[in-house]
Design goal:
Elements: E1 8-14, H1 18-29, E2 36-42, H2 49-55, E3 62-65, H3 71-81, E4 86-89, E5 95-96, H4 100-110, E6 116-124, E7 130-134, H5 141-145, E8 156-159, H6 162-166, H7 177-188, E9 192-203, H8 209-212, H9 215-227, H10 239-251, H11 254-265
Parallel strand pairs: 1-2, 1-4, 2-3, 6-9
Antiparallel strand pairs: 4-8, 5-9, 6-7, 6-8
Helix pairs in contact: 1-2
């Protein structure tokens, strides 16, 4: 039986990441997925980003370059344009793993009642060499309420109908918008699935928001704590629950998988890896 490919919409927010943007775009369009909608929302880049986008615009369904109020607004612009059955976003310095879209489509087809999924996300450096992988478990709302999260945004995908239940990103968030979105996924009690495959790669470099840190992170953490009455606060997570979480990961051999992966793949180019 031939697979009836659901449309997958990917949104890339972009701003002055020309150093990495071309590789990000290629990781999407080179999936050769037959029912793809690719949307790039650029915030008015002044580097080489626009030239790179124009180079591939025949394979991009929609793109725009204009000033915005930050990453969350840019992603929401893309969500509003998206017409796919399955939605996800990919930052302009991150990658989709080769073969990921087929794996995602097959999972959603086989699990029609599942609304949101996640998979593994490996880490790469500035030169696109593999650092390590994080073999997570299925995200559990119980642990998340105690400040323990193990989902990376690069491997989050969901049915478009999720937006009817929980809305778009909260544009007042500028660092932990993915975490706050994920909390609303838990609060909505939709069925969450997990793919035991690596779907995305996050790039670790000195100019990322994670590396830079600062006030935007502090403000977002404070807002989450206030919005959810202290739940989901990773700054105040219970050590007891954290140790239980670690114990379960050990039983499920997730740390062993991490070690084996690192021994095999560390230092190799991400282009040599696929699922």
């Amino acid at each position: 039986m031939e697979l009836n490919y659901p449309k997958i919409s990917i949104i890339t927010p972009s701003f002055n990441q020309g150093q990495f943007l071309e590789e990000t775009i290629l990781s999407v369009i080179n999936q050769n997925y037959p029912n793809l909608e690719y949307i790039i929302i650029d915030g008015g880049s002044t580097d080489k980003s626009i030239g790179i986008i124009k180079k591939y615009e025949k394979q991009i369904n929609y793109w725009v370059s204009e000033r915005d109020n930050g990453q969350s607004e840019a992603i929401n612009k893309g969500f509003k344009k998206a017409t796919g059955d399955i939605i996800g976003w990919l930052n302009s310095d991150d990658l989709v793993i080769q073969g990921a879209f087929n794996a995602i489509a097959k999972y959603f087809i086989k699990n029609p009642d599942t609304i949101f999924i996640n998979g593994y996300t490996l880490r790469i450096d500035e030169e696109s060499k593999i650092l390590f992988n994080n073999h997570i478990m299925r995200q559990n709302s119980f642990f998340s309420k105690h400040g323990i999260f193990n989902v990376a945004q690069q491997s989050m995908f969901w049915r478009r109908e999720l937006h009817d239940k929980i809305g778009l990103l909260n544009e007042s968030f500028h660092a932990e918008m993915d975490k706050e979105f994920l909390i609303r996924v838990f609060e909505s009690k939709v069925k969450i699935g997990h793919i035991n495959k690596t779907l995305g790669a996050i790039r670790i470099h000195n100019s990322t928001k994670t590396k830079v840190g600062g006030l935007i992170w502090e403000n977002d953490k404070k807002k989450i704590k206030e919005m959810y009455n202290g739940k989901y606060d990773d700054g105040n997570r219970s050590q007891i629950y954290f140790y239980i979480f670690i114990f379960i990961k050990c039983i499920k051999l997730k740390y062993l998988q991490d070690i084996i992966f690192k021994l095999i793949w560390k230092g190799k180019p991400i282009s040599s890896y696929s699922i």
